[in-house]
Design a protein that fits this description.
CATH superfamily: MFS general substrate transporter like domains
CATH architecture: Up-down Bundle
Order of helices and strands: HHHHHEEHHHHEEHHHHHHH
Distance between the termini: 34 Å
Strand content: under 5%
Strand order of the largest sheet: 1-2
Structural class: mainly alpha
Radius of gyration: 21 Å
CATH topology: Growth Hormone, Chain: A
Largest sheet: 2 strands, antiparallel
CATH class: Mainly Alpha
Number of helices: 16
Helix content: over 70%
Shape: globular
């Protein structure tokens, strides 16, 4: 019994660890927005925020373009070979990051002009690398989500397994901001950072991912029956005929939109407040930063936001008796309240606290969306992953609003809209129609 249990845990652990890497590199991509703004985009004029958020936009564009491609790979080649391809994309993206820093260091005079904005070639190469990284994350998530949800691990249910895996993913997202601050930029002030400081850390990341890729190629990662269609099997229905799935895709679009917007843009809002002399306080009592442009606040806010995911997912993994629908209703209501309070008070710690509530939403929406889909599961996962493009849309829209309004303060109304739409999915859209029961 002990040997069988260990054998059943090992594939689950392997997939979970790879998901940790995805979380780590996803957040590194987001956290590089502010440093890149101060290195590459100093002459971008009134388009600084909009251009900066292109880093996240192109990352999540990879989800939209290649999410369905990944699901076809799962059906044609299986879970293991698909995750291997995703890791190859990851190495390609990191190599583009390395090339970006090299161009930015040795050829800073190579630039493009967009009106009055000056954009270096190095920044454009980095954005293309973000697209490859987003493609990697999409391909791997197409494997991880249905694999974990359908994997037969004794004593667990789908939403618990998803929460466990995403909790480990959150360890990566939580540690990444400090990796950017301390390892990549040595904890120095943001005005003094140099793009050449990316060289050594990125080379180390490439080596680590290459090692994981080789290990994955050699490991036994068993397939899961009845979760993907064979190359010759013709599905009788369109995946779009399942209403609870279609509405779930929309819900995840809005969820990832607000999840990523907070994680990627909260530090840009903080820099705006610090630059204007507004103190970053803890519920109006303890001054954390007053003025200055310390990169530490960049790491602090982001780390605590993503750390909320880690804590929330760990705690919710024990909620075996609370349905995904009830969890989603409660968290979206509370998140809406916190977002409104944050705008009114200009207290960023209320936005940070939303991380605790966002922690379980992905698992809840995904498990509700694929419930009862059986052989349609892998195809559904690919479409579902494409909806992660919401992270690109809302991050870029919020950056544009910040430039248009001259402030980040009221741009968080986008978060309120997203939370309310997810609440409506929990209340109404997640119910399965009788004709959709297979």
């Amino acid at each position: 019994m002990g040997t069988n249990l260990r054998k059943s845990i090992l594939p689950f652990a392997i997939v979970t660890f790879i998901y940790f890497i995805v979380g780590f590199l996803t957040t590194i991509n987001e956290q590089l927005q502010a440093p890149l703004k101060f290195t590459f985009l100093t002459e971008a004029g009134n388009l600084k925020n909009t251009l900066t958020t292109l880093v996240s936009f192109f990352f999540f564009l990879g989800y939209l373009v290649n999410g369905t491609l990944a699901s076809r790979w799962v059906n044609a080649y299986g879970y293991k070979n698909t995750i291997f391809r995703g890791l190859l994309f990851m190495m390609s993206g990191l190599i583009m990051y390395l090339l970006s820093s090299w161009i930015g260091t040795h050829y800073p005079e190579y630039v493009l002009h967009f009106g009055t904005a000056v954009v270096p070639y190095g920044f454009i190469v980095f954005v293309l690398g973000s697209f490859l990284m987003g493609t990697s994350a999409a391909v791997i998530q197409v494997v991880v989500n249905p694999y974990v949800a359908s994997y037969d691990l004794p004593g667990t249910q789908p939403v618990q397994r998803l929460n466990i895996t995403t909790a480990v993913n959150s360890i990566g997202t939580t540690s990444a901001p400090f990796f950017v601050t301390i390892v990549m930029f040595s904890g120095i002030s943001i005005e003094n950072i140099a793009v050449k400081q990316l060289f050594v850390p990125i080379i180390a990341l490439i080596a680590c991912v290459a090692l994981v890729t080789l290990i994955t190629k050699r490991l036994d990662l068993p397939d899961i029956a009845h979760t993907r269609s064979s190359a010759t099997e013709k599905l009788e229905r369109s995946i779009w005929s399942f209403r609870h799935f279609v509405l779930g895709v929309l819900a995840i679009f809005f969820y990832v939109g607000t999840e990523v917007a907070i994680g990627a843009n909260i530090n840009l809002h903080a820099f705006e407040l610090m630059d204007s002399g507004h103190p970053i306080t803890f519920f109006g009592k303890t001054d954390i930063i007053v003025g200055g442009m310390d990169l530490g606040i960049h790491a602090l806010l982001s780390t605590l936001y993503w750390g909320g995911f880690l804590v929330g997912r760990f705690v919710s993994s024990f909620f075996s008796n609370i349905s995904a629908r009830v969890q989603l209703i409660a968290t979206t209501i509370l998140a809406t309240i916190l977002a409104i309070v944050a705008m009114v008070t200009q207290n960023l710690w209320f936005l940070v606290a939303i991380g605790l509530l966002h922690s379980t939403m992905w698992s809840c929406i995904f498990s509700l969306s694929i419930k009862g889909l059986k052989q349609y599961t892998s195809k559904a996962s690919g479409v579902f992953i494409s909806a992660v493009f919401g992270g690109a849309v809302f991050t870029l829209v919020q950056g544009g609003l910040a430039d248009a309004l001259g402030s980040w303060r009221w741009t968080w109304v986008l978060t309120v809209v997203c939370e309310l739409l997810m609440l409506s999915y929990a209340l109404f859209g997640s119910r399965i129609r009788a004709k959709d029961v297979l």
